[in-house]
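User: Can you help me understand a structure? I only have the sequence.
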Amino acid sequence: MEPEDEQSGEPAQRPVPSGLSLFEPASGALGASGAEQGPADGGAQHPPDGRSPEDRPPAGTPLDGESDREPPARRRRTRRVLLWTLSALLALVGGGCGALWWTAEHYASSVRRIPDAFPTAPESAQPKPVPGSGLNLLLVGLDARSDTPTTGSAAKAPSWQAGAARSDTMMLLHLSDDRSSATLVSLPRDTWVPIPGHGEAKLNAAYSWGGPALMTETVQNLTGIRIDHLAVIDWNGFRALTDAVGGVDITVPRTIEGVGEARAWEAGTHHMDGATALLYVRERYGLPGGDLDRTKRQQNFLRALMLKVMDSGTLTSPSRLGGLLGTVGEVVSVDDRLSNTDLFQLAWGLRSLRADDVRFMNAPFGGFATRGEQSVVLLADRPAAQLWEAIRNDRTDQYFQEHKAGDTLGTDVD
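Assistant: Let's start by predicting it. Here is the structure, written out as tokens:
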């Protein structure tokens, strides 16, 4: 029986010795052999509590401070149970992580890689990368006028053959170093630029003449920004990707009359499948700003696609993210420097982004002009230089605070 506290009548609580652990035997008066050790000088033996032998309690009665100790055999059983439980938990967690890793690796491996996607120019002739300044990706949409896929795992033809296709869409995507914001800048395909080895021409000619490497080099020379990665999709892939996510909802603010082969659009919200979305993003005739409004339509589509992916919770679920990578891998090709781990980390790093964290804009417009018989687009030199510098040094937030009148995408997109 436990002695009762005189005031409460409840069993008195004995203190637990400090430092007691299930994994360490308590120190006491027992030596290695289990026998009590006497004093070194051979004098009278006294118990640790200072009582004489006749004052000691009967054999088998626990000493003060030792009543809470379990017998050694029970302690060993408890330790084994804890160790087995911990091992089982680690096995479950390890198995789940292994399955997740396999899924991510499987889907990421399905993404088609483009070899030799970067300039062969010496490092001294290329923009220097700025450490801690985020990530810069060049997104290219190909005007491949063929029903044969040229990008993604389903490709039946090379992503580039000299003269076979021009880049119809070019966007520079900057992700901040902490992945808290993103800036997407459309480069009009008719932008008049120097193309290494070919003189001045429209920007979209670079891909036709020299493929991804020349396209990347031309954009780097134009902006002074080091391109980290490249992603390419053709119109077949665009249709397939749109259909794979179930289509997107896009609002047309006002009725647009059909011009020539261009279709008419009624004001209101349209649910667009791949074929319809392709008509929407490729059209420029009948739009007030021509090709500049066309790039805004492309940005508007990407925004709608992004919102759909975010609303589905795909970016916050590793398993769903793997499925998204599988879908993207069927239609998109990326540079061969983008490893499976890089690809998964890139997608996973965007999970905290919200619509308000992503800015869409056109490169600063300097006017239309004529070069020979060609109608071309000129960039505004000084505003463009300021934007490129902000992206290069990961200061886009500061840039937009100082340039609120930039050509950013609004909600009213023809």
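Now, to help you interpret it: Confidence is low (pLDDT under 50) at residues 1-44, 89-100. The longest strand covers residues 166-175. Let me know which part you'd like to focus on.
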